[in-house]
Amino acid sequence: MSSQTSSHTSKRSRNSTPSTRRTWTAAEERTLIDGLKELCVNGWRGDNGTFKPRYLKELECYLCEHHPNSGLKGEPHVLSKIRYWKKCYASIAMLKSRSGLGFQYSDGAIIVDDPKFWMTS
């Protein structure tokens, strides 16, 4: 009988970098929103509707102050979360603009007034 050692092989290649994906807690998301509001109040929002340079670093400091052990960084964590929120907002705004569609804010439900608007021919 031959003796073989089994080695656990990872699906990830040796040259790949570890993932930066993380799950945000509800408290961290609320703090991020509060931080964005603070930036607006303190003049970090430009006339063109965007934030001034270095706003991610400011948000990183704000998050670190309120959640010191979270390890959240301006880039990639905050930037990724803001992009995700923008994508969700764009989808909901498009749906809200369609005729025959309503939105119930209390529970986030989408209401279809007349199903014929959603029928494909």
TrEMBL record:
Residues 1-25 are annotated as: Disordered. It comes from the Eukaryota. Residues 15-25 have a biased composition (Low complexity). Residues 23-113 form the Myb/SANT-like domain. PANTHER family: MYB/SANT-LIKE DNA-BINDING DOMAIN PROTEIN-RELATED (PTHR46250), OS01G0523800 PROTEIN (PTHR46250:SF15). This is RNase H family protein. The lineage of its organism: Eukaryota, Viridiplantae, Streptophyta, Embryophyta, Tracheophyta.
